[in-house]
Amino acid sequence: MMGKCNSLSPASTEPVNNQTCEKSVADHHKSIDLDIEQALAENRHDISPEFFCNSLAGSSPHLNLKSTGSTIILCHTSDDVILSIFPLLCYTLLVSLGGLVYGYDIGTVGGIVDIPAFVRKFGDHSTANGDKVFKPITKGCLVSIACLGGFVSGFVSNQTIPLIGMRFTLSLAMLVYMLGIILALIAPTYHVVIVSRFLNGLAVGISTVACPMYISEITPVKYRGVLTCFNQLFTTIGIVIGSVTMYFSATRFNSDNNAQFLYPLCQGGFLSLLAAASIWLVPESPQWLARKENNVEKVKKALSRLNYLNINDEKVIDNTVKLYDIQAVNRSNIEMNGKRARSIIRGEPKYLFRTIIGILIYGFQQFTGINFFFFYGLTIFKGIQVKSPYQIPVMLGVINLFFSSLSVYTISKFPRRHLLLFGSISLSSLMVCFTIAGAILKNKFDVTVPLILISCAFIAVFSITWGPIASVVISEMYPSTIKVKAMSICGSCAWIFNFMISLIIPTLTKYIGLGVGGGFAFATVCGGVFVYFFVPETRNTTTTVLDFHYQEKGRLYRRLCR
């Protein structure tokens, strides 16, 4: 821990009780603020990073501070001490149900827009024999409109998370997903389905930002990477459930029975309600409580629940002191730099540069071509005359689940950068093989086996590299002052990339077939080059250490990426 409670009163030889300690937590930071406010009011010339460091360190001896440029850096914090990993694991699993809903959405959307009953009811074009079908652009819109909802979710979460907290935001998002399901159930035309898909995208977009952020804030640095991966793991479980559900509906119900697409929708609504109720059981992030509310008791209560400790346990009190110390450093930076301290564009150290890195990480993740398989896998394998195309998404989902489970181990053992570089090389090679095999063996029975094997290998590699690692790295890159804003911007941009890919794939596939994989291969190679030169190693690295190195070494990768 950063220090003991009685370090706040070093002159006293008597033990400090819990009430005195709680008062000291607030009083010694109030003293810091008064010193700073007085200096600002007097327009003194000694208002500098050094002045703030002296004020903070003088009132809290366990702070280790360094001033660099125009920013105070909390140079070292020891790992949080926890009694048991079990409560943290339980709460992580509950938060990860938001990822389960997202995965279920991925696993069902591609199948629903192709399932006969749905096409019969909502198709916007008739063939020569009178059968209803979707135009390629309409199909692309039904799938991709959710990505526009995800784009909007970045701006929504940027406003709601700081205001009402992560728990309330996530629970509300799951209820919005349920509203989208209800609209789809009563939709008379595909236009209403498009609106419902937008709401679904808004909900899952919030969850993709808030779930990893929530998990990273309630877990200590030592377990942060592993536990954050559970969100991705639950996403893959959701994909499997969705794929199995679509296979069941396609084989169980006739094409003239609307239950063929209504059943998967109803099950998605049930999962969203389950997630909303479960997430509400998780304590609010202590970091958010320390930032938002000047209520030490609430912070202590949240920490005690997360660590399965008594609310007056010494470790809980010490962690409370630590959180308020970090907030004191952040307030001092804000006092010293004004709005610049929270500005993505002008903030230091290198906030804009770091945000651009996060945007491009998500961008290259999308351009690996993963959604080429998950969103349109059914369409692809129908096009090459696979007899039971609904079995393919199930197979891909199971492989995704197995290797995503394995990623929990690999992420804890290997550097993030090494996994991303391995993924870039492997995924680009596999996509080239997929494209060549599809071109040479086009429309031949022999093409099915190699294409299926390559697809399985692609999903396996993605599931232990770019799939989970992108979200983990981005959740570890930003300090609390800009974390919500930066991650929301990155998430919104990811959804724009997703929208572009999802919208154009049906049209591109119609004209160039599997040749579209060549473009994804090239983009993945570019992603590997980007990772090599610009992405920092965040494994077992606190954001305060990243801040220090960004401040000291303008080009962070020279110091951290080796």
Can you describe this structure?
- With 562 residues, the protein is mainly alpha-helical.
- It folds into two domains: 5-81 and 321-342, no CATH class; 96-282 and 346-560, Up-down Bundle (Growth Hormone, Chain: A).
- The protein is built from 24 helices and four strands.
- The strands form two sheets. A two-stranded antiparallel sheet has the order 1-2. Strands 3-4 form a two-stranded antiparallel ribbon.
- A hairpin with a 2-residue loop joins strand 1 and strand 2 (71-74).
- The protein is globular and about 75 Å long.
- The chain starts with 17 loop residues before the first helix and ends with a helix.
- The model is unreliable at 1-22, 32-37, 39-79 and 555-562 (pLDDT under 50).
